[in-house]
Amino acid sequence: MSGADEALFRPVRTGNPFEETVERLLQAIKLGVVAPGDRLPAERDLAARLNVSRVTLREAIRVLTEAGYVESRRGRYGGTFVNDRLPKPRARPKRKIALELGEGLEDALVLRSALECGAAQAAAARELAAAEREHLNRCLADTASAKLGDYRRMDSRLHLAIAEVSGSPSLTSAVADVRMRLNELLDAIPLLERNIEHSDQQHQLIVDAILAGDAETARQAMDEHLGGTAALLRAFLM
């Protein structure tokens, strides 16, 4: 089980177990923790980790099945699998999103900066295990080689991986939550080839600094990277 698995499949609050179960499963799918074609954890295990009944979990899975995110397969190698093709985000006018969000955009951007710059610094300050270093490099390579339609999800997965190797499940959860807040906004702006190339270069700098144990450079590189994304969001949405 990866750090992101632990962070996203944490126990839900008791007030709205069904709604939060759907939210946690969608987080895991949309942020690339469970990739297209992969199987979700076994029902008994997943219900225990989310601290919900199997009835609630099955209902949440049914909703995601109807929405086109997962499918159930029977047999010895059955289970619930993420669909190879995920539903496209619902397109909404950028102006409407900006008006609905109001000052929430700046709030989310400030929160993201504080969390992810801190995550990069904390990750670089740790003595990473071989498996953690391999995980970080694999997520970096997956992002750099991603097709255009998969880039956002792979980018999310890399940023989550950086939070994971910080050693703090709470920080990983917070990074996942703020990324979900920004997902619709990121989907509302175009993927620019020049920006993707620049992002890949910055990702490499961040990961290199983390693996080298250079905490200050990791923080600065992440701050510059997030600043570019924030500038694009402001330009297209404000």
Structural class: mainly alpha
Contiguous helical run count: 11
Our measurement of the CA-to-CA distance between the termini, rounded to an integer number of angstroms, reads 40 Å
CATH architecture of the largest domain: Up-down Bundle
Q: What's the arrangement of strands in the largest beta sheet?
A: 1-2
Total count of strands: 2
CATH fold name of the largest domain, please? Answer: Four Helix Bundle (Hemerythrin (Met), subunit A)
What can be said about the biggest beta sheet?
A: 2 strands, antiparallel
Give the overall shape, derived from the CA principal axes.
globular
Rg on CA atoms, Å: 18 Å
Give the helix proportion (percent range). 55-70%
Give the helices and strands, then pairings:
Elements (H helix, E strand, L loop, with lengths): L2 H6 L8 H14 L12 H8 L3 H13 L3 E4 L5 E4 L11 H8 L2 H22 L4 H15 L6 H14 L4 H19 L5 H20 L2 H23 L1
Question: Could you give a quick summary of the protein structure above?
Answer:
By secondary structure, this protein is mainly alpha-helical. The protein has helices at about 5-10, 15-30, 45-50, 55-65, 95-100, 105-125, 130-145, 150-165, 170-185, 195-210, 215-235; strands at about 70-75, 80.
